[in-house]
Structures are given as structure tokens and as C-alpha cells.
């Protein structure tokens, strides 16, 4: 089961399962090592939580572990670390995590899997491993690649008419992770190269250099955009997003089969495998938002990626069959649902969704059609589905009674209308079934935990599970109150236990509380048990939350308590913590933004860039500039910031930083916007 989001758990130099060690090094360093040892790399991608129970189960056979070590170097990256987010965007990009991924020594993906799926037999690690080994051998022996012609588009159309071959165009932009994966992992395979070189005139199109405005003409919104064009210049098909070799060849064959017939492929086919193209800054901005929210939930989002795909009702898409091949979703009022549940002696499952919610669409695409999910829901539940932004007349009664503030929220309700269990978010099939099972087993759902708590149960195991359930149900305020109550009863050694650290990290955030002071006073003990890196990040987060507490609203106007904040900065400078500069910079810029002190905002940002030079973070400078562009009315301040940003970004590029490549397209868009 997926635990509380954004937790920082145990971080150690090595993680050992039997004879297998996962090194905590960056992907690029692992690839250098892999080339020297003539191996590939296995990456365990985590987000705070390490799935040690399932990993131990999957790797319990020594022969399998030995085979893995003979062919791959195992490493682990935590996506709460900004450097790892940069590496992920470069080498992996479109896979949802936590996930385990095999790369060859050149950084090409050989395969991937999920520990929890393998632990229950839905995937076979031995098969994933064997396929990765075989794929590595194939890539080593491949010598050909697609020949993209350096040819004007009109010339390509003439050649198409002469040869009878349609045109294939790979549209991309610099910094697009899925585009790079297609370039390195698919276009370089012999069978792909032979098929496309024999059947198409192949061109590349950089979004930033599109003289014929093909991207606008053919409405390419996601990248890579795979365009198949007939000899007369009409669009044959358009597909958007990463495709593996077999899928890519299949797309080409379909284009050949339908040559001369105009058709377009829907945008919603692979929304998770594309980068939206209306503004590349959306993509980089969302990465920055993740990094900032990983530091503290109090830092607001500054950009988001636009949702793609159909907004039509998932209920309509999954309830059209009455033969048991799809989930039998309905839209019923709460009273009607309860009445039907009593008549059929079933519980009620409610999926609270929204038309714009991307995780909701992923549930619709990946989870609800699964045969095991279909069978389980139809057997045990009356299934209700709402898109709350358009179904408010029916859904509001559910939202009000069961406190639904996030999407998707999954409600399990008994036949009397009482809550059995509640959980939030997208999850894989196995995790979803595990949560649904709590609606069938009466003692394992959130409702039963409410009852057990009311009856006085307070054991450590129970409290940990109860608090986690509340957090996963998006009942953060209640979870926080219980966590504070529970943690206050523990001894120092119990507090320092690594199993308790995730509760501390998630809920103990008041810098001046007695509990926080106790934790900080015993720094060495907590570093020993939780890991120095995890503890340092926790300390930085607590200080940052305090630094953001000095903006108060008075008569609708936000004002900074300057005396209080100045005292905080003095206290921070004397604290000796590892993240003094990060806390100072982030809190200062956030406070200046909240109070709309744009002059000080720009001056402080420029001071930061001049101080850090080529080591400045483009993630920060882009986010600061994006806020300035969208909300500051002063054109002169925008120009002043732009001049400093251009100089600083040149220094970052000259330093050879990977971030210069990752942020190149986003910076270009921002700089152009600041000039307007």
C-alpha cells in the first residue's frame, strides 16, 4: 500500500538485501562505472519510502541476485533530491515512480518493473531481468539508425511525389525527455531503421525552428510529435508521445495502410508519455514545483502541466457492458445508493473524480479496465462514479458527508451509509485491490480504526497505521493532531526509532515546540537512526516553515512582520544547520512575493545570481522569473530581471551544468515573455 506522500525515510550509503547492495550515487556516475565494468545499471527509483519488504521477497533467491550482479550495477535514487529529479528527466522521464528501471551503459532503457507487482506475481522479476539482458545484447549489436534527411519541407514533398513514399516527421524540442528517449532507444534499432528508411522520407523538426509552421498547422500539442504526411501535404496521422520499437513500427505500418486517407490519432492515447508543447515552461515548472514541495508543503506551486486527453465521463467509458467485462458504474444519489446497497447486501464504492484531473484519467485508463478490478468491484460493491465539477448536483452530498477535497478520492461505504474506508490518489492495480479489500474485511478499514480509537486503543502499531490512514485519506489536520498526541507519549529512544521518523517528518513542524527542541537537541541520535541526509532535510524544512510564518493578512492586505523576520534571520545565521542559505533564500523570496514587494524581490534575486554565478539554480531563477512575468505590473523591473537572468544563464551554460540543458527551452520561452 502506498504510504504517506512526501515522506523522508531511512537513507544510508548502502541498502543490503541478502548479497545485493544498492548504491546511492547519481545515474551519470553509475553509467561511467557501468562502461568500465561492461555492465548495465539497475535503478530503484523511490520517493522517500523504500519498499524493502517487497524487494527482499523478490530478490530472495541467491541465483537470481547473482545473475543480476553479473550484468547490472544496482543503485537507488530518491526523487525528493533535486539532483535526482534532473537525472530522472534526462534518462527516464515518463515512467511513474516508484519504479525499478534497467539502463544500458549509454543510458538507454532496457526494461522496467514494480517491486510490489513482482512480489505478488503480477510481474516476474526473472523475466524482466532476462529481457533487459537480451535487450542490452541487441543494442550492442545494432549498427543502423533512421536516416533523417537535411532537406527543406517543400523539397521533401516533391521527393515524396516522385518516390511514392510518405513523409515521417519527428517533431521535438531541446530538453524534451521523451523525445530524447525516442532518439536514443528507438531510432537506433536496426529493425526500426530498416523499416523507416525503406518506407518513408524522414525529417526532423525542431519546435523552435519551424518556418512552415507545421506544428501549428497540424495542431501538435505534445512531444515528441510523430507526423505522417501524404505526398499532397495532407496529414495522414498524428501521434504524440513516446512509443517503443514495436509500437513505433506499428504506427508506421498503419500510416502506409491508410496512405492518402486523412486521419488523426487522439491526443489522449498516451498523455503520460508526452511533454506538453503549448509552453515548455509548464514542464520545467512542474518539475520545480515538485522539488519545492518536497522541501515543504508550505511552498506553493508556481506552474503546472496542462491536462491532455478526453474529459468525457469515465463512467460512460467503463460501464457500457453488462456482461461483467467492465465495472458497472452508476451515478446515484447517496440515498438511492444506500437503498440499493441494502437491497443487494453490498457495500458502496465511490470514485470522486474531476474532468481536469490527470490521476483520475490514469485510473480510468490503467486500473478500472483490469479484469481483477472489474471482477472485485462488480462482486462486492455497487460502484458509483462522479466527475464532481460537472456532477455537483449528486456528488455534493458525498463530498460534504465524507470530506472530499482531493481528486481522485475513493470512498468505501457500508449499506447504512457509514464510512468503511477512504483513500486518495492514483495507484497501481495491486495497491488498489488491497485498499478495496478493506471495504470487505470489516476490521481493516478507516471506519473500523475510528471505532478502535474511540474505544481506547493506543498501541504503537495501531497508532502508526491509523495516522497513516488518515493522511492517505487527505484528513491531514486530524492526522496531525493524533500524531502530536501520540509522539508526546514516546520516550527519546522510541522517538528516535527509524520507524517513527516518518511521523516526525510529516507532522512535527513547529520550530519552537518542545518536541522539536527535544529532537534537535538529540541530533546525533536521530542522524544515526534516520540517516544524516534525511535528518538535515527535515531540519531545513522545519526552519523554512518558520521563515514563512511572518506574513500576516491585515484588512485584506498581506504584510511582512519585518522585525520578527529579521530576528528569525539572525537566529538562522547562528543555528549552524546545513541549509542556512537555502532557507534564507527561499523564505525571503517567498515573503517578498506574498507581499508583492517586487522591487526588493528583483533586487534579492539579482544578488543571488551575482553571488552564485554559474552555480545558481535555474530551477529557482526560472520560477522567480515566471512569477515576475505573470504578476508584476512594472515593465522596468521585468527588464532589469531579464538582463541579470541572461547574464547568469550564460554562466550556467559555460559551467557545463546538466541543468543548463534541462532548462534551455524553458529559459528561452521565459526570456522572450519577459521582453514583451
From TrEMBL:
Alphabetized GO MF terms: protein-disulfide reductase activity
Region Disordered, residue ranges: 262-282
Protein's UniProt name: Uncharacterized protein DUF255
Source species of the chain: Sphingobacterium yanglingense
Segments forming domain Thioredoxin: 126-261, 306-442
One annotated GO biological process: cell redox homeostasis
Cited InterPro entries: Thioredoxin-like_fold, Thioredoxin-like_sf, Thioredoxin_domain
Amino acid at each position: 500500500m502506498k504510504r504517506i506522500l512526501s515522506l523522508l525515510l531511512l537513507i544510508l550509503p548502502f541498502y543490503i538485501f541478502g548479497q545485493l547492495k544498492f548504491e546511492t550515487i547519481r545515474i551519470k556516475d553509475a553509467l561511467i562505472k557501468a562502461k568500465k565494468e561492461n555492465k548495465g545499471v539497475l535503478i530503484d527509483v523511490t520517493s522517500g519510502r523504500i519498499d524493502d519488504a517487497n524487494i527482499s521477497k523478490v530478490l530472495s533467491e541467491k541465483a537470481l541476485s547473482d545473475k543480476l550482479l553479473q550484468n547490472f550495477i544496482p543503485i537507488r535514487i530518491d526523487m525528493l533530491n533535486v539532483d535526482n529529479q534532473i537525472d530522472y528527466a534526462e534518462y527516464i522521464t515518463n515512467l511513474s515512480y516508484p519504479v525499478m528501471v534497467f539502463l544500458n551503459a549509454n543510458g538507454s532503457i532496457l526494461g522496467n518493473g514494480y517491486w510490489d507487482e513482482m512480489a505478488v506475481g503480477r510481474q516476474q522479476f526473472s523475466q524482466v531481468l532476462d529481457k533487459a539482458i537480451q535487450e542490452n545484447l541487441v543494442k550492442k549489436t545494432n549498427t543502423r539508425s533512421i536516416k533523417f534527411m537535411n532537406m527543406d519541407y517543400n523539397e521533401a514533398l516533391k521527393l515524396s511525389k516522385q518516390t511514392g513514399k510518405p513523409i515521417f516527421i519527428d517533431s521535438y524540442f531541446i530538453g524534451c525527455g521523451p523525445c530524447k528517449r525516442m532518439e536514443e532507444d528507438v531510432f537506433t534499432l536496426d529493425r526500426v531503421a530498416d523499416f523507416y528508411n525503406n518506407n518513408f522520407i524522414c525529417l526532423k523538426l525542431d519546435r523552435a525552428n519551424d518556418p512552415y509552421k507545421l506544428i501549428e498547422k497540424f495542431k501538435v500539442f505534445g512531444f515528441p510529435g510523430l507526423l505522417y504526411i501524404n505526398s499532397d501535404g495532407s496529414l495522414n496521422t498524428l501521434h504524440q508521445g513516446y512509443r517503443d520499437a514495436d509500437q513505433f513500427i506499428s504506427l508506421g505500418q498503419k500510416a502506409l495502410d491508410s496512405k492518402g486517407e486523412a486521419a488523426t490519432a487522439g491526443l489522449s492515447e498516451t498523455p503520460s508519455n508526452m511533454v506538453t508543447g503549448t509552453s515548455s515552461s509548464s514542464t520545467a515548472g512542474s518539475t520545480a514545483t515538485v522539488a519545492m514541495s518536497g522541501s515543504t508543503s508550505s511552498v506553493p506551486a508556481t506552474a503546472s502541466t496542462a491536462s491532455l486527453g478526453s474529459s468525457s465521463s469515465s463512467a460512460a467509458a467503463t460501464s457500457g457492458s453488462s456482461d461483467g467485462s467492465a465495472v458497472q458504474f452508476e451515478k446515484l444519489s447517496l440515498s438511492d445508493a444506500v437503498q440499493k446497497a441494502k437491497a443487494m447486501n453490498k457495500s458502496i464504492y465511490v470514485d470522486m473524480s474531476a474532468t481536469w484531473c490527470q490521476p483520475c484519467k490514469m485510473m480510468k485508463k490503467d486500473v478500472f479496465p483490469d479484469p481483477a478490478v472489474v471482477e472485485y468491484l462488480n462482486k462486492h460493491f455497487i460502484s458509483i462514479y462522479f466527475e464532481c465539477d460537472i456532477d455537483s448536483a449528486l456528488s455534493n452530498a458525498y463530498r460534504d458527508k465524507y470530506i472530499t477535497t482531493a481528486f481522485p478520492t475513493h470512498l468505501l461505504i457500508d449499506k447504512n451509509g457509514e464510512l468503511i474506508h477512504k483513500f486518495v490518489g492514483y495507484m497501481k492495480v495491486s495497491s488498489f485491490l488491497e485498499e478495496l479489500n478493506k471495504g470487505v474485511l470489516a476490521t481493516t478499514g478507516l471506519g473500523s480504526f475510528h471505532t478502535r480509537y474511540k474505544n481506547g486503543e493506543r498501541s504503537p502499531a495501531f497508532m502508526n497505521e491509523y495516522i497513516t490512514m488518515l493522511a492517505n485519506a487527505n484528513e491531514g489536520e486530524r492526522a496531525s493532531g493524533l500524531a502530536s498526541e501520540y509522539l508526546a507519549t514516546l520516550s527519546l529512544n522510541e522517538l528516535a526509532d527509524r520507524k517513527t521518523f516518518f511521523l516526525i517528518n510529516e507532522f512535527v513542524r513547529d520550530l519552537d515546540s518542545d518536541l522539536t527542541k527535544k529532537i534537535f537537541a538529540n541530533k546525533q541520535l536521530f542522524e544515526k537512526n534516520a540517516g544524516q541526509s534525511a535528518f538535515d532535510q527535515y531540519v531545513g524544512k522545519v526552519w523554512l516553515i518558520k521563515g514563512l510564518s511572518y506574513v500576516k493578512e491585515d484588512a485584506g492586505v498581506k504584510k511582512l512582520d519585518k522585525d520578527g523576520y529579521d530576528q528569525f534571520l539572525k537566529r538562522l545565521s547562528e543555528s549552524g544547520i546545513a541549509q542556512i542559505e537555502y532557507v534564507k533564500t527561499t523564505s525571503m523570496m517567498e515573503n517578498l512575493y506574498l507581499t508583492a514587494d517586487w522591487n526588493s524581490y528583483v533586487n534579492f534575486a539579482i544578488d543571488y545570481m551575482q553571488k552564485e554565478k554559474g552555480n545558481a539554480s535555474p530551477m529557482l531563477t526560472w520560477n522567480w522569473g515566471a512569477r515576475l512575468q505573470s504578476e508584476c505590473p512594472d515593465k522596468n523591473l521585468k527588464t532589469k530581471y531579464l538582463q541579470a537572468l541572461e547574464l547568469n544563464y550564460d554562466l550556467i551554460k559555460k559551467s557545463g551544468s546538466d541543468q543548463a540543458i534541462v532548462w534551455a527551452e524553458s529559459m528561452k520561452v521565459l526570456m522572450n515573455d519577459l521582453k514583451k
